[in-house]
Amino acid sequence: MNRRLLTILLAAFVVAAFFSFLVYRLVSSRVTTVKPAVTVRVITAKSDIKLGTILNADSLSSVEIGSAPKGAFLVKDQSRAVGRGVLSEIYEGEPIIENRLAGVGSGGGLASIIPNGMRACAVRVDDVVGVSGFVTPGMRVDVVVSGMPPGTQNLTQGTVARTLLQNIQVLSAGTDIQKDSEGKAKQVQMVNLLVTPEQAEALSLTSNLTIRLVLRNLLDTKIVPVASTDLGSLFGNLSASRSSAPRKAEPQPYSIEVINGATTKEEKFATPEGHK
Q: I need a surface site. Which of 2, 59, 209, 255 has the fewest CB within 10 A?
């Protein structure tokens, strides 16, 4: 092999080694400047937690995530979550959020899920309403009452029905504040509705009236004016048609002229139809 070829090969090797060294330094410098990802460990639900349940240490777990959701409890803050009631269902592995827990010391059950300024008002329902398949917590209903208004016993309008409240949330059905595993309704005699203090007063006046809960779409939150309906108006057209029907003409009597000698007298007799 001649010396010139060896010189070229050696020069090429030196150049390759030099550039390899530069690439290595460049890559290594970038790798060392990348900061490790910052993670935090937050409190999560060990299993599904039902509405109204009081949290305890056995129902909680933790997981390390990159960024904690707003209001999430860190591991060091676990004591602040224990002993508080759950305002909405929390599923397994889901972080525990501050605004989904009742206030400190408020406990669990129905009372813990009543927002500030609102009231839970119990309404007695009949068997038809109780087993109609929609009286489950979380549903939205209108409250319709019917009865005889005071001082109207001698009037012809009769029973009056009125939509008293609209878009009212069902807090509990019977003793349950949450749906069963299949989301089905069961027979109940009492339903708790989430109302304002003023609405609670109005409901308290309906104890002697018939109450109906009317199901509405959860997305339909519009409050519309609804006129009252009385029993007389339901049959108004029927009464009018009867009063406006043509009356049968009364039969006219017929007369006979009786001539007795020089005396003439007219006698009137009723038709056979008139005797019927």
A: 2
CA 147 to chain centre: 26
Contact 203, 121 (CB under 8 A): yes
| Residues 40, 75: Cα–Cα separation, whole Å | 9
State how far the Cα of 79 lies from the Cα of 217, in Å rounded to an integer: 40
Tens-binned pLDDT, residue by residue, of the chain (276 aa): 577 777 777 788 888 888 888 888 777 766 555 566 778 899 999 998 887 888 888 989 999 988 888 889 998 888 888 988 888 788 899 999 988 888 787 777 777 778 888 998 988 876 555 445 567 788 888 999 888 877 665 555 678 888 999 999 988 876 556 555 555 555 567 788 999 999 999 998 887 888 888 888 888 889 989 888 887 777 765 555 555 555 566 666 667 776 776 677 777 766 655 444
Alpha-carbon torsion 220, 224, 230, 234, what sign?
negative
The CATH number assigned to the domain with range 40-111 reads 3.90.1210.10
149 vs 146: CA distance, rounded Å:
9
**pTM for this one?**
0.56
Q: Please list the residue range(s) of the chain that carry CATH number 3.90.1210.10.
A: 40-111
Neighbours of 101 (CB within 10 A): 23
